[in-house]
Specification:
Length: about 550
RNA sequence: UGGCCUAUGGUGUAAUUGGCAACACAGCUGGUUUUGGUCCAGUCGUUCUAGGUUCGAGUCCUAGUAGGCCAACCA
């Protein structure tokens, strides 16, 4: 960790305290328990890093456990995607588990509870039961079926399991306390009838256990020491403990549930349900759309696992409400990409520039691949009489703050020569068509001549027109215009979708990029970090902009 | 007319468990630079309120205020 002296988050403090109070290190065990009903997002990354980070810290095993108790929503596709994402982040689970592995054990325990008079079959509609449940401020009332005999309950539950009953006719309920101030303790449902095929158990079962009944018992079966979940489960802890009380052997380790606040990221939503809605309503092009805050979306966007983990570690873990600015995530992307991304030149908004006094056909200039990495080496880039520069890099007239090219002014072409703008041509509407300039042949970069050492304020990137490689470039902006789109009581989050979150343009790139492979990450100098999208084919290169460079000039312009 | 949780700079998280409120990001100034990038230096600014305990309170107690969560055969 850090040399200065590490600071622990509150979960780590709890573990340290448990270690002082009798837990042995060998007893420590954690789990990451996703439901396979959607793709993992940046919020899950926090949970993954927390649990697997604890595993690394204490050299303790961490299970990957799929919480697959609801066959109506869960699919193998999601299981595969989740495993891929966890692996991509760089973590290794001890064993791969499924709550469905425990269906028989759970059933046996449920029978035990019935025999002890602690569970009963209720045969009312969900509406009737909801009515009896009361409200947070009013006690509930007992179900008319609450006092069925053990034999009757056993017979009915066995029938439920056999498939004798239709969905919605019977449920198994824990007999706890309809007057509890905790709504979850008012005889919660343990099993419901569901005649649906399960992605792993197929049609073996037609009753499925509910989350509360399943989760703590699964932790107990796996001997998980610390079961960490988000704050909305805090009220479930009492029930988690109640269910555990019914089955635990005091000689075995008893799991402990603790809750932390989920991380909210600005300008997006971090909820599987809402992300699914974006996918289903085609607001984005799938779960791995680079605008999505999913792990797969961030991967496709060009984020590195390191940048995500660094982000997660700096935002930490706590119990209070939070809204983390997405710019912090972008900072970590830049920080890592700055070290590893080769520099290349590409022009996204081309303006033709002609060097009037350039006599040669072409020449190949030496260019440094990465000034942050001495081992990155050099490459050659072609230079010729006609180049593209960015439209924003030329103005006929501009004040002293503008370091770029203006008529009569000089700039250096990166890795090339110092040029001077002499004139420009325009169409009938006044749009600039091309810039005509002259160059100083003695000013070639790296030549060591007096002229080459001259300081000019501006340096522009460029690309030789006849050598340029065309590519589709996808520029992304925030998916939502509001920093917290799903917290408005009077407005749906879909109303805040940014209509300009994706802009597709054609870029003109230096020819070395012809051989770029899917997933390659580069810095287009002075523009940002880009990566090669999987849509790339042998005929067409496709780049995603991961994140732009920090842009002081944009800020200066904004102020004016 | 309930229960549970939370409150530290603009944002996020710390504070050796009662002992000088710190780190990162963002902002602002300046320096270096063949990327208006990177890097370097400097700077701004914080314990929700009111009482109490204490030599000493961000930390403990009481009350208040504000925010979040709790009534799916979802997880």
């Amino acid at each position: 960790m850090n040399e200065v002296g590490e600071s622990l988050n509150f979960i780590e403090h709890i573990v340290e305290e448990d270690l002082r109070n009798g837990y042995t290190k060998a007893e420590l065990r954690f789990r990451f328990p996703p439901e396979p009903n959607g793709y993992l997002h940046i919020g899950h990354a926090s949970s993954i890093c927390l649990n697997f980070g604890l595993g690394l810290r204490y050299n303790a095993p961490v299970n990957l456990r799929f919480d697959d108790t609801n066959p109506a929503k869960e699919e193998q596709e999601y299981v595969d995607a989740i495993k891929k994402d966890v692996e991509w982040l760089g973590y290794t689970w001890d064993t791969e588990r499924y709550a469905s592995d425990y269906f028989q054990q759970l059933y046996d325990w449920a029978v035990l509870l019935i025999k002890e008079g602690k569970a009963y079959v209720d045969s009312q509609s969900s509406e009737e039961m909801a009515k009896q449940k009361g409200t947070p401020t009013e006690a509930g009332i007992d179900s008319p079926f609450r006092n069925r005999t053990v034999e009757e309950n056993l017979t009915l539950f066995e029938g439920m399991r056999r498939g004798d009953y239709e969905e919605g006719t019977h449920v198994l309920r824990a007999k706890i306390d309809m007057k509890s101030s905790n709504m979850l303790m008012r005889d919660p449902i343990m099993y419901r009838v569901l005649h649906k095929s399960h992605h792993r158990t197929n049609t073996d079962w037609c009753i499925y256990p509910m989350y509360d009944w399943t989760h703590g018992e699964s932790d107990y079966i796996e001997q998980v020491s610390h079961s960490l979940c988000t704050l909305e489960f805090a009220m479930h802890r009492e029930l988690y403990d109640w269910f555990l009380d019914q089955v635990t052997d005091p000689k075995k380790l008893r799991p402990k549930q603790r809750e932390f606040a989920r991380r909210n990221l600005s300008h997006t939503v971090v909820s599987k349900r809402k992300l699914l809605q974006l996918v289903e309503q085609n607001a984005v092009n799938g779960w791995d759309d680079p605008r999505m805050p999913t792990i797969s979306g961030l991967r496709r966007r060009g984020f590195t696992p390191e940048s995500i983990k660094n982000f997660v570690n700096t935002i930490g873990i706590a119990k209070r409400e939070n809204l983390i600015d997405v710019s912090l995530l972008e900072f970590h992307a830049r920080e890592h990409l700055n070290k590893i991304a080769p520099r290349v030149m590409g022009v996204l908004n081309p303006l033709k520039l002609v060097i009037l006094n350039y006599e040669g056909e072409e020449e190949w200039l030496e260019a440094e691949n990465n000034p942050e990495d001495e081992t990155a080496g050099f490459r050659k880039v072609p230079f010729s009489r006609e180049l593209y520069i960015e439209q924003e890099d030329f103005k006929e007239e501009a004040n002293r703050k503008f370091f770029r090219l203006k008529l009569g002014g000089e700039v250096r072409l990166k890795n090339g020569y110092i040029i001077k703008a002499e004139s420009c041509t325009k169409d009938t509407e006044g749009n600039i068509l091309e810039v005509l300039c002259t160059y100083d042949p003695k000013s070639k970069s790296g030549s060591g001549t007096e002229e080459s050492l001259r300081k000019v304020k501006g340096t522009l990137h460029w690309v030789s027109i006849k050598h340029a490689v065309e590519a589709e470039v996808r520029l992304y902006d925030r998916l939502f215009t509001d920093e917290s789109p799903d917290t408005h009581k009077d407005k749906d989050f879909m109303e805040f979708i940014n209509p300009e979150s994706l802009k597709v343009i054609t870029g003109y790139l230096e020819p070395s990029l012809k051989s770029a492979q899917v997933g390659d990450r580069v810095q287009f100098q002075r523009l940002g970090y880009f990566c090669v999208d999987p849509d790339t084919t042998s005929e067409k290169l496709v780049f995603n902009r991961t994140v732009g460079l920090r842009d002081v000039w944009a800020k200066i312009q904004q102020r004016d």
